[in-house]
Amino acid sequence: MPSFPEVQGGGSLMLAWQVKGKRVLVVGGGEVAAGRILALLNADALITVICPATGLNPEVSHRLAQGLITHIDRRFEAADLADASTYSLVLTAIDDPATSSQIYTLCHAKNIPANIADVPPECDFYFGSIHRDGPVQIMVSTNGNGPRIAALVRRRIAATLPANLGAAVQRVGELRRQLRVIAPGDDEGKKRMRWISGVSDRWTLDQLCGMSDADIGKILAFYESGKVPRYEDIHPEETSSSLLYAPQRLVSSLLTGSGSKLGEGLPSGLVGFGLGISLSWAVWALRSRQR
After folding, report:
1. Is the distance from CB of 226 to CB of 191 less than 8 angstroms?
2. Which one, of 139, 137, 141, 157, lies nearest residue 149 by Cα?
3. Taking the alpha carbons of 45, 46, 50, 56 in that order, is the dihedral positive or negative?
4. CB contact at 8 A, 114 and 131
5. Model confidence over 145-197: pLDDT tens digits?
6. How do residues 129-156 score in pLDDT, each as one tens digit?
7. Which of 17-21, 137-141, 207-211 has the least mean pLDDT?
8. Looking at 118, 124, 133, 233, which residue is catalytic?
9. Distance CA 23, CA 66 (A)
10. pTM score, two decimals?
């Protein structure tokens, strides 16, 4: 009987929500609002902030001075949500529970997704802790249970990632775009998808991070044949060098016992035997690659 993933209820639907060019209302102008505004600006949203000027913190004032947000200098009024089509999202970050609940009720009645800061039951979505590297975005959410823990987990994950991961993803994106240029037809869709997925699967993350613009052209040259190139197909010189030095590394470990006790007390004849096998293997591997 086939095995399927178990259902784990109680989670959130994790999405990369596209709000580019959409109008978003932020009620409040303090530190929490500043963080929300930055997240929205990074997503290219059109932001209106309702808050008395005296309540704007330095960061929000800076965004206003740059012309990045629209500011309404007063407190929120119910009339601000009279037209349900005005805003695609509403966020509140104010120290006023009654007004926050009023805003959520208005949004709920008009089917406008809302986030009421620090009140999980009155949130249609949560903000998580985000790691950003170019096009790469990784979000950790605790579903409103522990934002500080989410930040700890996010930092732990980020510390394990290659420093140039964002650039690598951009190059893979460029590979996909150039592939569409050389194979634009709809009938090529399935082949394109399988082939580009194969490249991502056959290359390690470190190899993808080292992909250069010159590599992209070499990789694309394999597409017509249907072969998915390995890293070694694009960089045979590195593979040859690795093969040449493999016997040396093996003999060194036999003699010195690097990382183990292998070298202790071995007769010189056995070491010579190991060297002979290693050299024969290297010659065979090199000839195989040249065929």
Report:
1. yes
2. 141
3. positive
4. no
5. 888 999 999 999 999 999 889 999 999 999 999 999 999 989 999 999 999 99
6. 999 999 999 999 999 888 899 999 999 9
7. 207-211
8. 118
9. 18
10. 0.74
Alpha helices in 128-267 (DSSP H): 147-159, 165-182, 189-202, 205-209, 213-220, 231-234, 236-256
CA distance 65 to 72: 14
pLDDT at 70 over 90: yes
Q: How far apart are CA 113 and CA 53, in angstroms?
A: 26
Whether the CB-CB separation of 266 and 256 falls below 8 Å is answered with no
* Residue 118 falls in the annotated catalytic set: yes
Instruction: Report the largest interatomic distance among the alpha carbons of the chain, rounded to a whole angstrom.
Output: 92
Residue at 84: amino acid letter: A
CA of residue 240 relative to chain centroid, distance: 33
Between CA 151 and CA 211 the distance in angstroms is: 31
